[in-house]
Input
Amino acid sequence: ATVLGLASGYLARWGWQYGYLCYALAIPVLMYVTVFFHPVDNEEAAKSSGLLQMNKGFLLTIIMLVLATGFVCMAITVYPTNIASYYLEKGWGGTDTSGVASSLYTASMILSGLLFGRLFDRLKQYTFLLAVCLSMAGMLIVFWGANLYTTLLGGSLIGFSYTTLHSSDNAIVSSLLTPT
Output
């Protein structure tokens, strides 16, 4: 996350949109995984190594979780850098204003972490859907924000959804995996 934040900051010098180019780092990682990752064909070898076996009926669920989480994270990980550039571009403030936006973003992440247990107990697997919807709403509010206050509200929704998304991902995936 630190590398992506720094890379995004350097790329944002040329425009806030260029901050998203830091995700080009994913290309060599994907190439590495596809070349060097080989699934275990022998079930006995997998059992003896203590690897977790995934229920094959949930493979589509795992793929959808990865795709949705990847998209949302690509959009919101570089939020602090991009919101600072956006505020400068709009003339809504400088580092102090973007500092407030980043603080609200972080505070809503902390609030989400504190509330996650109760939220997941009530909503179960729908917590993930809630997180995706909140992040989309937050991104749209920031994108169409007519003033500073609406973008701050959108940023708070994005921060809340970020922690909820990752926590619900972990809870759902761990419930799909069974130890051998």
Remarks:
- The first helix runs from residue 2 to 11.
